[in-house]
Amino acid sequence: MKYKAIFFDLDGTLLNTLSDIATAVNYALSKFNLETKSEDEIKNYLGLGSNHLIKNAMSNKHLELFDDIYLTYKNYYLSHYDIYTKPYDGIYAFLCKLKQKGYKLAMISNKPNDISQLLINKFYPNIFDYVLGQTDNLSPKPNSEMMEYVLNKLNLKHDEIVYHGDSNIDYLFSKNSHVDCILNSYGFGILDQLKSFNVPIINHIEEMEKYL
Q1: pTM of the predicted model, to two decimals?
Q2: For residue 149, how many C-alpha atoms fall within 13 Å in the half-sphere facing its CB?
Q3: Segment 99-141, tens digit of pLDDT
Q4: CATH class of 5-16+85-211
């Protein structure tokens, strides 16, 4: 086996979360009489964490309202995180297959840790060896701190894992962490941008098998 473990991103990789995120963002914006955004606009704000998401959705205006809008967004999303969200086709079966083959599995996301845990527990219970969302103690992707933390927790070396994501942030995270990377074309990333990184790009999760 080339790798001992596969680490995954969450949004745009394991789950299509866009509609629930967009609904929560627009609920918070409308509560403060700010202009709402389309799903395509919100998709472009994803990847760097919730603070970045909300500030961009606010068009970096009225930032004196940021704390209130962020809290409104998070509270709404915590109560409505699974209305439209669903796994991408074939992911659950493929993860079970990887687990049966003896791979360690981890998820690292810039989504807040509490929501990340809720989503993984709902859609992928008892699958992952470690789940880590964004916390106050570790710098978010593309900084390598989250990767180093999980590698240490699972007693793994950099050349023993591959990270699978859907965006330029995931590519930079892998590069900064000195681990291999596989990207996908079905998530939230911009395909032309992903192609420029010269790493494997898969169109369906089962295509990952030929790289393992």
Answers
A1: 0.94
A2: 18
A3: 999 999 999 999 999 999 999 999 999 999 999 999 999 999 9
A4: alpha beta
